[in-house]
User: Fold these one by one.
Assistant:
Number 1:
Amino acid sequence: MKKKEFSTEVGGKTLTATFSDLTEQANGSVIVKYGNTVVLATAVMSKNKREGIDFFPLTVDYEERFYAAGAILGGRFFKRESKPSDEAVLSGRIVDRTIRPLFEQHIRNEVQVVITVLSIEKDDPDILAINAASLALGVSDIPWGGPVSAVRVGKHVGGSELEINPVYDFRGHENVTLELVACGKDGNINMIECGASEVGEDEVSDALLKASEEIEKINIFQKKIISEIGREKQVVPKEEISAPAKEYFEKEIRPKVKKGIWGEPGWVKIDTVEKAWLLALLEKFPEEKSSLADAYFDDAVNDAVHELATKENRRADGRGMDEVRPIFAQVGGISETLHGTGIFYRGGTHILSALTLGGPEDTQLLDGIEVRSEKHFMHHYNFPPYSSGEVKRMATGRREIGHGMLAEKALRAVLPPKESFPYTIRVVSESMASNGSTSMASVCASSLALMDGGVPITRPVAGIAMGLMLEPTRQDFVKQNLGGQAKYKILTDIQGPEDHHGDMDFKVAGTERGIAAIQLDIKVGGIPIPVLKEALAGAKKAREHILGVMTGTLSAPRPEISKYAPKIINLTIKEDQIGLLIGPGGKMIKHITASSGAEQVNVDDFGKVTIVGKNGSAEIAAGKIKELTREYMPGEMFQGKVTRIMDFGAFVEIGPNAEGLVHISQIAPFRVNKVTDVLKEGDVVPVIIKEIDERKRINLSIKDADSEFASKKGIKPSNQTAQ
């Protein structure tokens, strides 16, 4: 095996990159090791371009292998990997979002980057995946504008120090106040994924600066490797429409483009202009490829949108740069059967979120190579094709998983602890109409749904998407790092075309107290941190405005959960009563569940009983358990049922699985010759607990409960001495 290794220190640990002929058919590959976590990254570009498309065909696959965890995972009947876990999808997305802006978008050759997790221990493979993908692309002959590097920055509650690349356990720790993944190059940032516990904008900025320092060290490391062993890059020429077609476009179509953009939200007018262009192309230049014509038109729209913003200080729909579109908020109003609902409009973006509450057994089991735990809060996001006026196959893809997780991360900061609110919580956001940042609108709608359902969140969360328009020399702006005269405009609440044609999609969610989640995607080589700080300030102002509308609709969580939601009752029994509650083979606990109508009845090893049920069933089950496990005391009186007759007395049931003995001497205040003279099986009799002996046997008395009981049954005392 031919092999060459390079090492550097990151966050106090050694990062090793190994290049060999192991995957020699790939254009570029590397094995990266950090601690005992190891990933393989490969990059391959097709030899021929893919015809008939108008986009750059990049695929990023993040492959988890069960063996990486040193365990035989999977289900009982299926032990090999199947569809990617949510963790794998999200990890693949951050790699994609990081490397994609650095490709020339005119390339039509398919590029595939495959990340394979070979080993996992304490260190998270997602950070390694980004750095490995960069190295694989960097040393390959695939044209790409890297390298780009990534680190994770973390901070604990009350801590003053920012930690670089904290171990995996850090991410799920309740004392974590900030977890930020940042990627970048040349002092700029080109991808952010952040979850936080209501931290301030300055704290996020400090984390970005810290991350940028480490990123630069890794970039230097990568550049050294690429200069030493990197292959010469292929040249992929840009294919364009002919000169006559361009001349026609510039004369007849381009003047209409700006007019088509201005004054209307979304794509209302511009679609008409594009149809006119394609029709003219078909008539006058039938030899031209429609995909190239689409791309040329898209570039013209792109230029017009940027010029409007940077030169004329105008936006397509006439709003000010820092103006949020009209907002509408509503809670409820769909069906009382739903445990809580929220509807949120921001301009042409409309979201419906629905809340469902369940018991502890409704948690999602996570069993992957990275994590094995239970998930008590789930936020899911759906983007049906009708929300964008399209006809497509209904499916849950990477976008849906990513947007759902972003909102989940934002809302997690305000949820009550499961100790005080033991419900499993699921919120589903439905994108009903899309015109910019449905993910941030889903944060708002889901906050309303949680409050409508009586979930005691600490305060509502709102989200906003910030955009950026750079002057036409956009790459120069990035390279200058604000050092020149480059113009830019930060846009608050970007709509669809501004997202599509803009240079940045900067999603920020938080409360009145601070930031809860961030996601940054860009279309240029990187964004300087001062610009991001400016965008954070704009996002805070917009967030406060949105929160004002939301709290005007519903100021706080409702005091009670929905009557249609299950009720959870917690009881504690003694450990020596656990077997009594469960019964032989689970017979008793199954009987209580079935007879009460409860959905769930569970007891742990410490005697904590959790009951889940609707329509009073939980209360019924709780009552049965209390009766079953109650401790009886001398002097308590009951109406008991005679279960067995013996020569020496009768056994009387006084409660579930509880019976005592009425000795023949305790039946009447006079001598009773035979028990059957007074009692028979099935009789309901008054009894009082006379004593409970050291073996916990219950001795009962009828005569002390009702001295006339025998007489009422027609039994008269004999001439014998009264007992």
Number 2:
Amino acid sequence: MSQDFLVEVGTEELPPKALKTLMDAFASGIETGLGRARLTHDGISPFASPRRLAVFVKTLEPSQPDRETSQKGPPVSIAFDEEGNPTRAAIAFAKKCGVDVNSLEREKSETGEWLTFQHVETGLPAVDLIPGIVQAALDGLPIRRRMRWGDREKEFVRPVHWVVMLYGKDVISGSVLGIEAGRLTRGHRFHAPDPIDIQSAGEYEETLLKTGYVVADFHSRRAQIVKAVQQAAKRAGGTAVSNDALFDEVCALTEWPVPLTGAFDDDFLSLPREVIVATLTSHQRYFPIADKNGKLKPAFIAIANLESREPDRVRNGNERVIHPRLADAKFFWNTDQQTPLCDRTAALKNVVYQKGLGSLHDKSMRVAQLATVMAEQIGEDKEVVVRAATLAKCDLMTGMVGEFPDLQGTMGAYYAADANEPEAVIAAIGEQYLPRFAGDQLPTSGAGRILAVADKLDTLAGAFLLGGKPGGKRDPFGLRRAALGVIRILTEGAVDVDLRKCVSAAVDQQPGIDNRLRQISDELHEFITDRLRSYFIDSGEGITTDMFEAVFVRHPRSLVDFQDRLRAVTEFIGLESSISLAAANKRTANILRQVEFDDSHTLDSALLSDGAETVLYHALQAAKKEVEPLINERRYADALRHLAELREPVDNFFDDVMVMSDDEAMKRNRLALLAELRALFLGVADISRLTPAQE
């Protein structure tokens, strides 16, 4: 009879930022293991809290299903002699199968008759398989560094103190991570310090909740925290400043979450908003409170991991902790302002950016030069981008950024404003690191976009110079993220710069560059292009691989141009004529390639003899007058719509005209006509690479 299954691994406090990942990976590992073992069930539920990882499996089958197996032995002609007696081959096969020769069967096939052994393999009990499945799932967890504890040989992310494994009401005998499984768990450290007996797998969650003061379900506990924070903020007359990562981390730090509201001195509100938020969230995992206008209130929400009989004492304790934190921040703020941002540029010379790539000052100068190259291409103010690049890294020399590294760039903008730098410079400094992560906002100012791209390209070029190109899943320097950031800024921000020239300029400026210059530049450009392919195909705009390749082979100068061509191709492929024209372009490309057509052969209208080729010629001339200006204006969608009107004369040409005429002059002239047709389409994209969906 099917029963519920539960496994729980009890540990010291697990790393909060990794808890959700570990929970999901554990559940996935159990599910994979059960699938491989052919053990069916009705669903899996993960659980996690600071001191436990658990998986609950609904109605797990008690054993594997039986399955028929067939083993093929030697041919009958070899298995028996002329008198019908079994040979050594038959006897050996029977021994291998664990039966006598008379129990073997014969099976005929196209290649002859063979000895076979048909056997029903009895499925193993689930309880015999589960310990191995659990161990394999734990071994497969994404743990960067495992540790040993006591005198044990087993390794895990944290020391393990207990293991629960139940099938229905029965304990599954077995050892996991060197700990013998049982039914005793632990509840909250303070509210329920004694061992708790789990009577059955199905009672796990409820028992921990009612007896152990533990909300074991991560998602339920998180939802409880979100609701509690929102309600507490509303009672305080505002809304909570929060994000998903903070809620996840607070959830990973608590088993019995209890909200409380605290306050801090109004004087600290003179600090920049970002500093207060960073102090409360990064250091203490508190939730700041903002009024309806977004201005911070001198209050916060903390989530305690217990239900205190004296909540005021807990509240006061949290308030006492936050005061020196904010006082330190105010000290840094006041001290940093005593030194103008521009006076910190010299200090950058004393800080190594990366071995082999010079100092932070060297990097700033490289970024400034590259930003100038980009600004010249799009008409951005060069003085602004150079000034912004020169000051961009200066806030790394401040006490505030030393305390809060995540505020780099943000504090630079504040200190630049304090020094009365131009607004455009201030904005660029504040936006230089955007986007910081997938889905993050992009720079909005022209100088900010240029500075952000230049900084990322310099980082990429330096890493490639040092041989740091990512391999496999490893990307310690976040180069894939940097490349995607470049792509997003250039495309979504419509920054119309020549990408290859920018990449080459970034590589040229690296120190100690040698004869690998061209190779590194090509590798970096290819690396960005690979990210570009995924970016467009995953964009949700219906872009396919063949569409991307159709544009890619034309090597557009900028990503903005690339995007415009792609969107035009996407629209074109939806036209009724696209199937026929794509096929015609493919046929044309094949013909010209096979004959190795020389573009020096010009089209002579006097040699046109067939009606269909004359019609196509005149249609092409009319199309060129319409299309070439559109291409020059980068109105690619309009250009392809005009070219789509060539469907009928193109189809008629291929139906009625023999391109490979015996007359050499006529053949060359017809090839020249096809070359003109192909060139007109290639002004936008290589349509021959498209595979439009058939009706």
